Amino acid sequence: MELLHSATFPSKQRLLIVVTIAITLFTCIPHVYSFAEDPNFLLKQQEPPSQTSTIPKLQNGDVTTHENCDIFSGEWVPNPEGPYYSNTTCYAIPEYQNCMKYGRPDTDFMKWKWRPDGCEDAVPVFDPLRFLELMRGKTMAIVGDSVSNNHVNSLICLLSQVEYPVDTSVVPGYNFKRWTYKTYNFTIATFWSTFLVKSRPNPTLPRLTDLFDVYHDEVDERWTTAIGEFDYVIMSSGHWHFRASIYYKNRTIVGCHFCQLPNITDLTLLYGYRRAFRTAFDAFLTLENFKGVLYLRTFAPSHYEGALWNEGGDCLRKQPHQRNATQDEMTVKLHKIQLEEFWRAEKEAKKKGMRLRLLDTTQAMWLRPDGHSGRYGHLPEASGRSDCVHWCLPGPIDILNDFLLAMIEREQDKGSLAQVL
């Protein structure tokens, strides 16, 4: 550095050396700082996660919570920047949700975002960095059926823009999985519970392979005994309740849904749906020392048109419904039951100091008949019905995680008093 101050050293050369040193310092210091903060930083730079450059950022790092905004009332609007991952950049897409792999010709269904009424920025595009920072050192359980698994796969794909999780499952198979994000010490677990209460395939009528025994007064202990340790629990149930079922109380048959058996009253699936949610909520309310948050995610409707699902029904639409599109009668009834049972349980939860929240996603999902796997969940020559229950990835189901992050933001802002109005 003495040369820089020498009166005999040429001034132009001194200037060149100063500029060179400054550029070098400004280039190296950020990497040194990042390495100090995260020892895996350099490794991440050598093996970057997919589509890191496309991660959406919240402006100025600010989070707008809009606690008085009903984020679940709104409409879908075009989003030319979407999607934020693809079937080639995310490994977590099951075959039957990998629509682009199996030849879906249109891509517009991936280019929409949800705009809540009167508070457009209340549900920003999912920010995986923000989500993982909020989840640092925490755990999340997702309880339900294959649509819940669809939700989990969407979350893993969105987070893959930052980090891929490690499979830390302790039970073989896909129904009870655990994934851990090592950098953030964040674990996601899935609990397979199609009816939310105790159930089993009926063993005495093997010819009726789709007949189930459902015990509406008995909890499904596979999830009710496990969720007490979790910080966030998302519970949902829907399409399995349409299946033919025999209903029990005190281990005695009280009726059924579409069982077509002699001397058994058909109580309809509406009876079974209400009883299942009431028992599930009651199980939650009896948990001791549960300090987490339970979210009810409401029914995600199917969109079969032209015929029933097993009679050639299909979902061929290429655009979302307009916001005023009328829901089918069964979706309205099931959603109403969920809300009634939620509000009943929420009153008791408040008395106990427990946190019960509503992810009221039914309307947003109802407006997306264009986003199902349909015939693109298998090779064209393969036989099989169109799937108008599950959703393509990427696709409309990604909105569930936009909603989830918005709700968690509110919880962080207002603590135990946070609640969607």
TrEMBL record:
GO terms for molecular function: O-acetyltransferase activity. Keywords: Membrane, Signal-anchor, Transmembrane, Transmembrane helix. Residues 67-120 form the Trichome birefringence-like N-terminal domain. It holds the Pfam family PC-Esterase. InterPro entries: TBL, TBL_C, TBL_N. Coiled coil: none annotated. It is found in: Membrane. Residues 123-407 form the Trichome birefringence-like C-terminal domain. GO terms for cellular component: Golgi apparatus; membrane. It comes from the Eukaryota. It is a single-pass membrane protein. The keyword Zinc does not apply. PANTHER family: PROTEIN TRICHOME BIREFRINGENCE-LIKE 19, PROTEIN TRICHOME BIREFRINGENCE-LIKE 9-RELATED. Belongs to the PC-esterase family. TBL subfamily. This is Uncharacterized protein.
